# Entry
Amino acid sequence: MKELVRPSRLAAGARVAVVAPSGPVLEERLQAGLDVLRGWDLDPVVGPHVLDRHGELGYLAGADADRAADLQNAWCDPSVDAVLCARGGYGAQRMVDLLDWEAMRAAGPKVFVGFSDITVLHQAFATRLGLVTLHGPAAAGVDFIKNARAQEHLKATLFAPESVRTIPSGGTALVPGRARGITLGGCLSMLASDLGTPHAHSGARGGLLLVEDVGEQAYRIDRMLTQLLRTGWLDRVTGIALGSWDGCGPYDALRPVLVDRLGGLGVPVVEGFGFGHCEGASTVPFGVMAELDADAGTLTLDEPVLR
# Structure
């Protein structure tokens, strides 16, 4: 794996577009998120289809083509400095192939933020655009609009990235040690279901894997990790940070699965790293060189994630 292009940091007055590539968005949460962004002296603009809902498939924020158009138009708008996803859910896999990657590449680098189902787009932005992205809170997500820590960490990352080069986790070592590599990852279920597609990473070789999930039973997490192992996707991974596992049952029942599937890889593994589907989640970058210290529970970036 190689380091990717870092976009420019934001400044007061920057225009940020909010889009909904996946699931439907609640208007009151959207408005609350926009208020937070305005409080940061940003100028948020909303994609025309963000509040749409697919007529027959209510788990989608409108038609695939409309969701793709909102993202592409925002990205290709020269007045927009960053694109923030309103929420995750499901649907990014259905629209990612509709994007014009040549046009988006020509538009140049800018900040992209999202998590959960947006893992699909993080992979595509890395493989198609060669761009660093931010695994951070959804602009209309309840864990963002009601949590000061999540807000402040994202704000610091966007405006003063040198201040958050070391990301503390509060986690502990599942397997002790230190490791270096290029960060990648996201939601485990999306990494597994995206295997073999044109936009997915071909593997985690040389990478630090940051992975988490929500609402999955232990045997399903076992199955997804086993799939990554069997395909060779985890071959030569250098280290692993395990984020939140909200709704995945008692952690005491899940932990043996993580030990069994990942403990034998011979690389440092930290558990309880505070990113993903959890209260006060940290924003973590994908596509940058970093050092993972499992014993200290820290991820330290070689340089600020944004220029």
In short: The radius of gyration is 18 Å. The mean pLDDT is 97. Residues 15-162 form a domain with the Rossmann fold fold (CATH 3.40.50.10740). The longest strand covers residues 178-187.
